[in-house]
Sequence to fold (229 residues):
Amino acid sequence: MRGPSGLVQRFLRATIHFFSYHLVMRRRSSWRTKVAGLQFVVRPTVFHPGYFISSERFANFIDRLDLRGKRVLDVGTGSGILAIAAARSGAPTVIATDINPNAALSVPENAQTNGVRAQVQPVCMDLLSGFAAGPEFDVIFANLPKHNKQPRDLADRGWHSGPKHRDIAPFFAQAYERLRLGGCLYVMLSSHSDLDVIESLISLAGFQWKIIQRYPIFIESFVLYECRR
Fold:
């Protein structure tokens, strides 16, 4: 079966974003949800793992990994779903970062609810700017904003990363510098992302990379990259 045409895709994406932005991302109250077998309180402006299903796909992938003895970093953590999934997969230390202070406040509560508070530590920062360059992590996960328009505000930064993905462009070199030799970055984007730009940034950072999974939905596919140092 053929998918919708490019024009229909753009219309659907714009419609989904309009309602998601006004009804979900800019909500004024915290919502409770269950995703990938985990319980969450999602604060206002925080990327909602129940409505935006890339989070669940990524968490289910992490469930299949053996992270025992690994020092893990989750970038753009939102509700903390990937950090908590990593802890559930055995990681003894998971640092969960996000530029949104509401996300950093959400992580301890959600980690506590899901029984991994001792393993998960939140930090509020832009990408990896708060870490000194150096081989600190074995695995980095990043479920990055997938669309390349100017974000309207903090809530919209979970969806848009600026023209040519400007807001996340420094991330790949930062990640390479902070991974140990043999370490791995897993990053999820979308068929609606500018993947030529993304793949150029991954290569310029020095990674050996491949696409290891595609998750098709009606109007797009989520694309999971494995990038090795």
Q: What stands out?
A: The chain has a mean pLDDT of 89. The longest strand covers residues 179-190. The first helix runs from residue 6 to 25.
